[in-house]
């Protein structure tokens, strides 16, 4: 699979600085590099999330700079986000079988565990794209963007993610629906305490 650097060099884009390829969450992401090695990420999940968000944001910024014509963040729209997500498919590692309405239907369409290899394309998994959009949406606003103009929250992006989820769910024979938590049955009521029965009056004793 061609690296991101090779793709940039073989394109008509202007040459950019050296790029490193990192694979995290099934998405190959890029970040500007220097000769020094990057320090290890902290163990906390919050720090890992922030590091990943920063790398994703740098990757998207690099994509905008490589775009012809180059794009500024203020002019970025939901259409450009869709273009970016489709571009990432070339680095995907998830097999998506060809559906039946295509001429060359894959015989393993809908099989979660195909018994043999097939020539179907590799794409980015829906879960990876969904998480990526969430991080970029947060990074956009953290870098001065307004929520009402956030391209990662555009309706077209939400519809695209939903379409990818449904297509991959059917093609791979897996369900992405969240399992509903079973409601715990209510506890049984406490046993009622029975009052002691009053003894019958003795003969000759008047009833009270």
Structure, described:
With 208 residues, this protein is mainly alpha-helical. It has a domain at 49-170. It has five helices and four strands, in the order H-E-E-H-H-E-E-H-H. The chain has helices at 4-10, 45-66, 78-88, 126-142, 155-172, and strands spanning 19-24, 27-32, 94-95, 122-123. A hairpin with a 2-residue loop joins strand 1 and strand 2. The longest helix has 22 residues, at 45-66. The chain is flat and about 90 Å long. The relative contact order is 0.12. Residues 1-38 have low confidence and may be disordered. One of its GO terms (molecular function) is DNA binding. Belongs to the plant homeotic and developmental regulators ALOG protein family. This is ALOG domain-containing protein. Residues 32-47 have a biased composition (Low complexity). It is found in: Nucleus.
**By helix and strand content, what is the structural category?**
mainly alpha
C-alpha-based Rg, rounded? 29 Å
Proportion of beta-strand residues: 5-15%
Main β-sheet, spatial strand arrangement: 1-2
Shape: flat
Number-wise, the strands total: 4
Overall mean pLDDT: 75
Termini, distance in Å? 99 Å
Give the low-confidence spans.
1-38
Element-level helix/strand string: HEEHHEEHH
Note the total helix count: 5
Sheet with the most strands, sense and barrel status:
2 strands, antiparallel
Fraction of residues in helix: 25-40%
